[in-house]
Amino acid sequence: MTTQERAALIKRYKDGYKQVADALQGISDAEWDFKREPGKWSAREIVHHLADSETNSAIRLRKLLVEHQPYIQGYDQDEFARKLQYAKRPPEPALKAFEAARSTNAQLLDLMSESDWKRMGEHSESGPYSTEIWLKIYADHAHNHADQIRKNRSVYKEKK
Question: Between the N and C ends of the chain, which has fewer C-beta atoms within 10 Å?
Fold first, then answer.
């Protein structure tokens, strides 16, 4: 990955929270729980997922930066949603957790050296896992979910 590619991904990563917050702007109580089709998540569930995913990503990044060849454990996001009762919990604390974890991760990204960007570990599901792979994944993650929230809200308004 070139320095320019990395800088663009970091910029996109930093913009992720804003995209989610913008997608949620003015959301109604009914929209929080609307699912555009069976098996899809509601905005409420997406926000809880983002909080859990971002806090997991924070640990992953720190393990990659500190530990020698760390083992990065995958997790079942659907099981998290069920067991942690995403559909029943208020989303506001989760949104704050997502913002805080993303903000502290962004601080680390700004301080990383070239050698930090070459650090490697092993992911339980996908094999070799580096800080660059981490960045590629999480640079798009919030944007993808912001798009899901926008789609949910658009379909909700069409059906209303």
Answer: C
What integer pLDDT is reported at residue 159 of this predicted model? 84
> How high is the mean pLDDT of the chain?
96
Give the C-alpha distances (Å, rounded to integers) separating 160 from 89, 153, 157: 24, 10, 5
For residue 138 the two structure tokens come to: 């999480």
Is pTM, for the whole model, over 0.70? yes
CATH of domain 3-159: 1.20.120.450
Domain boundaries, the chain: 3-159
| pLDDT on residue 85 | 96
